[in-house]
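Title: Comparing notes on inverse folding

I've been comparing how different people in this forum approach sequence design from structure. To keep things fair, I'm posting one structure and asking everyone to reply with a full sequence. Here's the target:
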């Protein structure tokens, strides 16, 4: 669906709604700095705290503002397969280029259930589907052998993998080699490992703040320039770590606020970054001359 870096965008909020002016600034910043795709309503965008009307407004705004300049991906997952299908069909109707579908959370289904979940969604969808494996949040882990089986599903174009286990990352990347399914790292701090093992890109939190620099790591890897990619990663690895001092998207929302893209507003149950950790993150940003 894409090769390179896709930003999992934050959602700028006002005290009583969506900050569309801030959203537009962020989108233009991303595109002008060479981002390869944009993901809206992913985990970083706080969709569990939004109304269906707000999600609809964001999707329509995204399609209009991006205007075909880069691929637009919408998060459409649910722990109800029927709902995920409906969400994905609607995203396609609004003009999405692809859908990101997280594993069913809370239900804790079997590996066969995962396979059948994605099979049903892909068969119903007119746009490509990217599976999203993030067991730390959902309680369900797509195993490499299941992913290998999933590569036979027509219309599954990729997997965003945030399993967090180095040995599994290697096996997951190998499982899709030679298939239509692209392996995308879902963790900024594991991007080099993913790319060294055949990954095609990164769906990134850090690129909200540094799209050009994070994007250059992935581009260098795709071009075989791993020494250059490693050097850039080493420069930014402490900043990347700082974006996870507290649960995502708390720190990246604070960093975006410091850059003037949005207010430092999150919706409960998420809360603004604690003062001590915010001070540490701000110091890292100053060291890198981000601010």
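Reply #1:
Here's my take.
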């Amino acid at each position: 669906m894409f090769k390179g870096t896709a930003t999992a965008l934050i959602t700028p909020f006002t005290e009583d709604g969506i900050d569309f002016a801030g959203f537009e600034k962020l989108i233009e910043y991303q595109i002008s700095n060479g981002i390869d795709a944009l993901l809206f309503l992913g985990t970083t965008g706080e969709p569990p705290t939004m109304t269906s009307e707000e999600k609809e407004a964001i999707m329509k705004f995204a399609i209009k503002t991006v205007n075909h300049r880069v691929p637009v991906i919408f998060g459409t997952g649910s722990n109800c397969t029927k709902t995920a299908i409906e969400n994905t069909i609607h995203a396609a109707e609004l003009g999405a280029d692809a859908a990101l579908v997280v594993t069913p959370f809370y239900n804790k289904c079997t590996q066969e259930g995962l396979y059948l979940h994605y099979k049903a969604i892909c068969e119903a969808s007119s746009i490509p589907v990217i599976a999203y494996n993030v067991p730390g949040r959902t309680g369900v882990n797509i195993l490499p052998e299941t992913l290998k089986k999933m590569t036979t599903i027509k219309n599954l174009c990729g997997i965003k993998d945030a399993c967090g286990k180095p040995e599994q990352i290697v096996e997951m990347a190998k499982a899709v080699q030679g298939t239509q399914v692209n392996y995308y790292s879902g963790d900024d701090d594991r991007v080099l490992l993913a790319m060294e093992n055949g990954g095609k890109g990164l769906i990134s939190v850090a690129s909200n703040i540094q799209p050009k620099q994070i994007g250059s790591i992935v581009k260098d890897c795709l071009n075989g320039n791993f020494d250059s990619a490693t050097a850039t990663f080493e420069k930014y690895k402490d900043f990347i770590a700082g974006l996870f001092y507290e649960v995502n998207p708390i720190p990246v929302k604070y960093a975006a606020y410091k850059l003037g893209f949005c207010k430092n507003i999150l919706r409960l149950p998420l809360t603004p970054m604690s003062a001590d950790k915010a001070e540490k993150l701000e110091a890292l940003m100053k060291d890198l001359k981000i601010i």
